[in-house]
Amino acid sequence: xxxxxxxxxxxxxxxxxxxxxxxxxxxxxxxxxxxxxxxxxxxxxxxxxxxxxxxxxxxxxxxxxxxxxxxxxxxxxxxxxxxxxxxxxxxxxxxxxxxxxxxxxxxxxxxxxxxxxxxxxxxxxxxxxxxxxxxxxxxxxxxxxxxxxxxxxxxxxxxxxxxxxxxxxxxxxxxxxxxxxxxxxxxxxxxxxxxxxxxxxxxxxxxxxxxxxxxxxxxxxxxxxxxxxxxxxxxxxxxxxxxxxxxxxxxx
Length: 252
Prior knowledge:
A hairpin with a 4-residue loop joins strand 1 and strand 2 (8-12). The strands form 4 sheets. A 7-stranded mixed β-sheet has the order 1-2-3-12-14-13-9, with helices on both faces. Helix 3 crosses helix 4. By secondary structure, the chain is an alpha+beta fold. The chain is 31% helix and 28% strand. The protein is built from 6 helices and 14 strands.
Protein backbone atom coordinates (compact mmCIF):
# COMPACT_ATOMS: atom_id res chain seq x y z
CA UNK A 1 0.00 0.00 0.00
CA UNK A 2 1.26 3.45 -0.85
CA UNK A 3 0.00 6.56 0.89
CA UNK A 4 -0.09 9.88 -0.92
CA UNK A 5 -1.02 13.42 -0.15
CA UNK A 6 -4.54 13.17 -1.53
CA UNK A 7 -5.41 9.51 -1.44
CA UNK A 8 -4.43 5.90 -0.99
CA UNK A 9 -3.63 3.39 -3.68
CA UNK A 10 -4.20 -0.28 -3.13
CA UNK A 11 -2.98 -2.79 -5.68
CA UNK A 12 -3.92 -6.43 -5.96
CA UNK A 13 -2.89 -7.74 -9.34
CA UNK A 14 -4.70 -5.62 -11.90
CA UNK A 15 -7.53 -4.76 -9.53
CA UNK A 16 -7.04 -1.42 -7.84
CA UNK A 17 -8.98 1.08 -5.81
CA UNK A 18 -8.17 4.74 -5.45
CA UNK A 19 -9.68 7.71 -3.72
CA UNK A 20 -8.65 11.33 -3.96
CA UNK A 21 -9.76 14.49 -2.26
CA UNK A 22 -9.37 18.16 -3.04
CA UNK A 23 -10.64 21.17 -1.17
CA UNK A 24 -10.41 24.87 -1.74
CA UNK A 25 -12.85 25.26 -4.65
CA UNK A 26 -15.09 28.30 -4.52
CA UNK A 27 -18.84 28.85 -4.59
CA UNK A 28 -21.62 29.44 -2.10
CA UNK A 29 -25.05 28.32 -3.29
CA UNK A 30 -26.82 25.89 -5.57
CA UNK A 31 -30.27 25.26 -6.99
CA UNK A 32 -32.01 21.92 -7.16
CA UNK A 33 -33.87 20.27 -10.01
CA UNK A 34 -37.06 18.26 -9.60
CA UNK A 35 -37.23 14.65 -10.68
CA UNK A 36 -40.32 14.27 -12.86
CA UNK A 37 -41.54 11.07 -14.45
CA UNK A 38 -44.32 10.41 -16.90
CA UNK A 39 -47.70 9.31 -15.58
CA UNK A 40 -51.41 9.60 -16.24
CA UNK A 41 -53.82 12.41 -15.41
CA UNK A 42 -57.58 12.62 -15.98
CA UNK A 43 -59.10 14.89 -18.63
CA UNK A 44 -55.78 15.87 -20.19
CA UNK A 45 -53.65 14.46 -22.99
CA UNK A 46 -50.77 13.19 -20.91
CA UNK A 47 -47.40 12.40 -22.47
CA UNK A 48 -46.16 13.84 -25.74
CA UNK A 49 -48.29 16.35 -27.63
CA UNK A 50 -47.37 17.62 -31.09
CA UNK A 51 -49.00 20.79 -32.40
CA UNK A 52 -48.34 23.28 -35.19
CA UNK A 53 -46.61 25.52 -32.64
CA UNK A 54 -44.29 22.79 -31.37
CA UNK A 55 -43.98 19.77 -29.08
CA UNK A 56 -44.60 19.57 -25.35
CA UNK A 57 -45.03 16.93 -22.66
CA UNK A 58 -47.64 16.76 -19.90
CA UNK A 59 -46.72 15.02 -16.65
CA UNK A 60 -48.91 12.96 -14.31
CA UNK A 61 -50.52 16.15 -12.98
CA UNK A 62 -51.30 17.46 -16.44
CA UNK A 63 -48.58 20.10 -16.23
CA UNK A 64 -46.12 20.81 -19.03
CA UNK A 65 -42.55 19.83 -18.28
CA UNK A 66 -40.02 22.67 -18.23
CA UNK A 67 -36.25 22.77 -17.96
CA UNK A 68 -34.10 19.64 -18.05
CA UNK A 69 -36.11 16.44 -17.63
CA UNK A 70 -35.89 12.70 -18.09
CA UNK A 71 -38.73 11.04 -20.00
CA UNK A 72 -38.72 7.28 -20.64
CA UNK A 73 -35.01 7.09 -19.84
CA UNK A 74 -33.94 9.94 -22.16
CA UNK A 75 -32.89 13.51 -21.37
CA UNK A 76 -34.73 16.48 -22.87
CA UNK A 77 -34.66 20.26 -22.52
CA UNK A 78 -37.94 22.21 -22.41
CA UNK A 79 -38.38 25.98 -22.54
CA UNK A 80 -39.76 27.88 -19.50
CA UNK A 81 -43.23 27.81 -21.09
CA UNK A 82 -43.04 24.08 -21.79
CA UNK A 83 -41.99 23.68 -25.43
CA UNK A 84 -39.46 21.00 -26.37
CA UNK A 85 -36.15 22.68 -27.19
CA UNK A 86 -33.92 19.67 -27.87
CA UNK A 87 -33.37 16.02 -27.13
CA UNK A 88 -30.56 15.98 -24.60
CA UNK A 89 -29.20 18.96 -22.71
CA UNK A 90 -26.46 21.46 -23.47
CA UNK A 91 -24.02 23.72 -21.64
CA UNK A 92 -21.21 25.58 -23.36
CA UNK A 93 -17.92 23.94 -22.44
CA UNK A 94 -19.43 20.54 -21.63
CA UNK A 95 -19.99 17.50 -23.83
CA UNK A 96 -23.71 17.16 -24.57
CA UNK A 97 -23.86 13.36 -24.62
CA UNK A 98 -22.03 13.04 -21.29
CA UNK A 99 -24.26 15.69 -19.74
CA UNK A 100 -27.44 14.01 -20.96
CA UNK A 101 -26.24 10.64 -19.70
CA UNK A 102 -25.34 12.22 -16.36
CA UNK A 103 -28.86 13.61 -15.95
CA UNK A 104 -30.43 10.22 -16.71
CA UNK A 105 -28.09 8.36 -14.35
CA UNK A 106 -28.66 10.88 -11.56
CA UNK A 107 -32.39 10.23 -11.75
CA UNK A 108 -31.85 6.45 -11.85
CA UNK A 109 -29.35 6.51 -8.96
CA UNK A 110 -31.07 9.09 -6.77
CA UNK A 111 -31.76 6.52 -4.04
CA UNK A 112 -28.06 5.68 -3.97
CA UNK A 113 -27.18 9.38 -3.80
CA UNK A 114 -29.34 9.63 -0.69
CA UNK A 115 -27.59 6.53 0.68
CA UNK A 116 -24.18 8.19 0.27
CA UNK A 117 -25.36 11.42 1.90
CA UNK A 118 -26.79 9.40 4.81
CA UNK A 119 -23.35 7.82 5.36
CA UNK A 120 -21.74 11.27 5.23
CA UNK A 121 -24.24 12.54 7.79
CA UNK A 122 -23.42 9.66 10.14
CA UNK A 123 -19.82 10.87 10.20
CA UNK A 124 -20.87 14.48 10.71
CA UNK A 125 -23.09 13.50 13.62
CA UNK A 126 -20.16 11.78 15.31
CA UNK A 127 -18.32 15.10 15.52
CA UNK A 128 -21.35 17.25 16.33
CA UNK A 129 -21.79 18.90 12.92
CA UNK A 130 -24.97 19.94 11.16
CA UNK A 131 -26.37 17.50 8.63
CA UNK A 132 -26.09 18.12 4.89
CA UNK A 133 -28.79 17.64 2.27
CA UNK A 134 -28.51 15.99 -1.17
CA UNK A 135 -28.42 18.43 -4.08
CA UNK A 136 -29.73 17.18 -7.43
CA UNK A 137 -27.85 19.61 -9.70
CA UNK A 138 -24.57 19.02 -7.91
CA UNK A 139 -25.18 15.28 -8.28
CA UNK A 140 -25.56 15.71 -12.05
CA UNK A 141 -22.22 17.54 -12.07
CA UNK A 142 -20.65 14.77 -9.96
CA UNK A 143 -21.96 12.09 -12.32
CA UNK A 144 -20.61 14.06 -15.29
CA UNK A 145 -17.19 14.01 -13.65
CA UNK A 146 -17.33 10.21 -13.23
CA UNK A 147 -18.28 9.59 -16.87
CA UNK A 148 -15.69 12.09 -18.10
CA UNK A 149 -12.89 10.38 -16.15
CA UNK A 150 -13.80 7.02 -17.64
CA UNK A 151 -14.14 8.29 -21.20
CA UNK A 152 -10.73 9.97 -21.21
CA UNK A 153 -9.12 7.42 -18.88
CA UNK A 154 -7.59 9.78 -16.35
CA UNK A 155 -7.82 9.68 -12.58
CA UNK A 156 -7.53 13.03 -10.90
CA UNK A 157 -9.06 16.40 -10.17
CA UNK A 158 -7.47 18.00 -13.25
CA UNK A 159 -7.68 17.13 -16.95
CA UNK A 160 -5.29 18.77 -19.41
CA UNK A 161 -4.22 21.12 -16.65
CA UNK A 162 -7.76 22.33 -15.87
CA UNK A 163 -9.55 21.79 -12.55
CA UNK A 164 -12.59 19.79 -13.60
CA UNK A 165 -14.51 20.55 -10.41
CA UNK A 166 -14.30 24.25 -11.18
CA UNK A 167 -14.87 23.81 -14.93
CA UNK A 168 -17.91 21.54 -14.69
CA UNK A 169 -19.36 23.58 -11.85
CA UNK A 170 -18.97 26.85 -13.72
CA UNK A 171 -20.49 25.40 -16.92
CA UNK A 172 -23.36 23.43 -15.39
CA UNK A 173 -24.14 25.20 -12.12
CA UNK A 174 -23.00 28.69 -13.05
CA UNK A 175 -20.36 28.57 -10.31
CA UNK A 176 -17.57 26.34 -9.08
CA UNK A 177 -18.46 23.20 -7.15
CA UNK A 178 -18.26 24.59 -3.65
CA UNK A 179 -15.79 23.64 -0.94
CA UNK A 180 -14.28 20.58 -2.56
CA UNK A 181 -14.63 17.10 -3.99
CA UNK A 182 -13.83 13.50 -3.10
CA UNK A 183 -13.62 10.77 -5.69
CA UNK A 184 -13.08 7.04 -5.51
CA UNK A 185 -12.73 4.34 -8.12
CA UNK A 186 -12.37 0.60 -8.09
CA UNK A 187 -11.54 -1.69 -10.98
CA UNK A 188 -9.07 -2.78 -13.61
CA UNK A 189 -7.31 0.18 -15.23
CA UNK A 190 -6.21 -2.03 -18.12
CA UNK A 191 -9.94 -2.64 -18.80
CA UNK A 192 -9.27 -6.28 -19.61
CA UNK A 193 -11.27 -7.83 -16.75
CA UNK A 194 -14.71 -7.43 -18.30
CA UNK A 195 -17.57 -7.96 -15.87
CA UNK A 196 -15.34 -7.36 -12.86
CA UNK A 197 -18.03 -5.31 -11.11
CA UNK A 198 -20.94 -7.64 -11.93
CA UNK A 199 -20.94 -8.98 -8.38
CA UNK A 200 -20.50 -5.57 -6.73
CA UNK A 201 -23.95 -3.95 -6.60
CA UNK A 202 -24.06 -0.19 -6.28
CA UNK A 203 -25.14 -0.11 -2.59
CA UNK A 204 -22.13 -2.27 -1.65
CA UNK A 205 -19.87 -0.09 -3.81
CA UNK A 206 -21.15 2.99 -1.98
CA UNK A 207 -20.33 1.51 1.42
CA UNK A 208 -16.88 0.42 0.20
CA UNK A 209 -16.12 3.84 -1.26
CA UNK A 210 -17.29 5.71 1.83
CA UNK A 211 -15.17 3.50 4.10
CA UNK A 212 -12.07 4.30 2.05
CA UNK A 213 -12.82 8.00 1.99
CA UNK A 214 -13.17 8.09 5.77
CA UNK A 215 -9.72 6.51 6.19
CA UNK A 216 -7.96 9.42 4.51
CA UNK A 217 -7.49 12.66 6.48
CA UNK A 218 -7.91 14.84 3.37
CA UNK A 219 -11.14 13.11 2.36
CA UNK A 220 -12.41 13.16 5.91
CA UNK A 221 -11.72 16.87 6.13
CA UNK A 222 -14.15 17.42 3.26
CA UNK A 223 -16.75 15.11 4.80
CA UNK A 224 -16.57 16.90 8.15
CA UNK A 225 -16.00 20.46 6.99
CA UNK A 226 -18.17 22.68 9.19
CA UNK A 227 -19.39 25.04 6.48
CA UNK A 228 -20.77 22.40 4.09
CA UNK A 229 -24.57 22.41 3.80
CA UNK A 230 -25.27 20.32 0.68
CA UNK A 231 -23.62 17.49 -1.21
CA UNK A 232 -23.89 16.05 -4.69
CA UNK A 233 -23.05 12.39 -5.24
CA UNK A 234 -22.59 10.72 -8.61
CA UNK A 235 -21.92 7.12 -9.65
CA UNK A 236 -20.83 5.40 -12.84
CA UNK A 237 -20.01 1.83 -13.88
CA UNK A 238 -18.53 1.73 -17.38
CA UNK A 239 -20.20 -0.49 -20.03
CA UNK A 240 -17.65 -3.31 -19.69
CA UNK A 241 -18.06 -3.23 -15.90
CA UNK A 242 -14.29 -2.99 -15.56
CA UNK A 243 -14.31 0.33 -13.65
CA UNK A 244 -16.62 1.92 -11.11
CA UNK A 245 -16.51 5.56 -9.96
CA UNK A 246 -18.14 7.77 -7.39
CA UNK A 247 -17.71 11.51 -6.90
CA UNK A 248 -18.87 13.68 -4.00
CA UNK A 249 -19.11 17.47 -4.40
CA UNK A 250 -19.38 19.53 -1.23
CA UNK A 251 -21.24 22.85 -1.33
CA UNK A 252 -21.24 25.71 1.17
